[in-house]
Amino acid sequence: MRPSASALSAAVRLTRMLAGTWTVLAGPGDALAGAWTPPAGQGEIIVTTLFDQANDGFDQAGRFTRTPKYRSYQASLYLDYGLTDWLAATLKPSLQNTTLGAPDNQKFSGFGDSEIGVRGRVWKSDAAVISLQALARLPGSAGPAAPSLNGSKNADFDLRLLGGKNIAVAALPGFIDVSVGFRARGGKAPNEGRADVSLGVYLTPGLMLLAQNFNVVSESSRHPANPRWAQSKGQLSLVYSLSAEWRVQVGGFTTLAGANAYREYGALLGLWRRF
Predict the structure, then answer these.
(1) Which of 265, 239, 235 is nearest to 250 (CA)?
(2) Cα(212)–Cα(236) distance, integer angstroms
(3) How many structural domains does the chain have?
(4) How many helices (H) and strands (E) does the chain have?
(5) Please, which domain of life does this record's source organism belong to (predicted)?
(6) CA–CA separation, 192 vs 214, rounded Å?
(7) CB 3.0-4.6 Å disulfide test: which of 88, 92, 166, 178 passes with 31?
């Protein structure tokens, strides 16, 4: 059934209204702000808790393999703040508790990796935007229980190109946000290429369905403790607006494919506060 002209008109109006907003995308991996930047003096804080575990993984060829049981509980605070109308600052400290079962029997607990960076808008139209983001990831006192899951104790540096566009899916307004980038790893860990895609669809004006895909492919490595690795994660969540300032996010994620990586799955709960 084709949507009516009035429904399409309403979708277009709401999509145009959304062009003046910014979107912050919270996920199980690194903090990722959308391509849009908040107005000067405004921003958003996101507190996220997640449970993540794996009972098996992917070998070097991408086939399933048995691994020690991996579990992680994480909590992070993400701040995105507009320094000017085109430049935003981001900050993400985190806490985590990670365990790796027999025969490794490892446990990490404390501050996780922290991220700090800036995102600058370089072009925009009524419905689209392009930005550049640079950030540093600083190691914490904890860290994932395997080098293939970013357990480096050195600082990393990340540069990304981001693009966002407001769209309509049938009669429903939404947006698509894409980022591609390169992460220079400290120490012996191989550098990484990264590509992420987010699709948001407003089922109602106050309820958004958010589908995301996070991808990492590292360079080759000559260090057995830090092998080449790859991972593709999928996440699906709902973001509900409690008010103009408050939103809550509930979702789940899983590893779709990988190499020298765990086959993770988990759930997340986030509270968003716009100010």
Answers:
(1) 239
(2) 6
(3) 1
(4) 1, 17
(5) Bacteria
(6) 13
(7) 92
CA 241/CA 235 separation, integer angstroms: 19
**Amino acid identity, residue 1?**
M
132: amino acid identity, one letter: L
Over the stretch 175-228, which tens digit does the pLDDT of each residue have? 999 999 999 999 889 999 999 999 999 999 999 999 999 999 999 998 888 899
Nearest by Cα to 264 from 57, 73, 106:
57
- Expressed in percent and rounded to 5, the helix, strand and coil fractions of the chain are 5, 60, 30
Which residues, 6+ apart, have CB-to-CB distance to 179 below 8 Å?
32, 35, 133, 160, 161, 162, 163, 194, 195, 196
DSSP secondary structure string for all residues of 79-123: EEEESSSSEEEEEE-EEEEEEE-TTT-EEEEEE--EEEEEEEEEE
Q: Taking CA 27 as the corner, what is the angle to CA 13 and CA 271, rounded to the nearest 5 degrees? A: 70
pLDDT of residue 152: 65
Spacing of C-alpha 144 from chain mean position: 17
Query: What is the residue range of 31's domain?
Result: 5-274
Token readout for 100 is 């790796």
Residues 6+ apart with CB under 8 A from 81: 38, 42, 43, 88, 89, 90
Q: What is the pLDDT of residue 151?
A: 55
Q: pLDDT digit string (tens) for 7-46?
A: 444 444 444 444 445 777 766 655 456 999 999 999 999 9
Write down the pLDDT at residue 32.
53
The tens digit of pLDDT for each residue in 110-165 reads 888 899 999 999 999 999 999 999 999 998 775 444 444 445 678 999 999 999 99
pLDDT at 29: 56
- CA–CA distance, 200 with 208 (Å, rounded to integer): 6
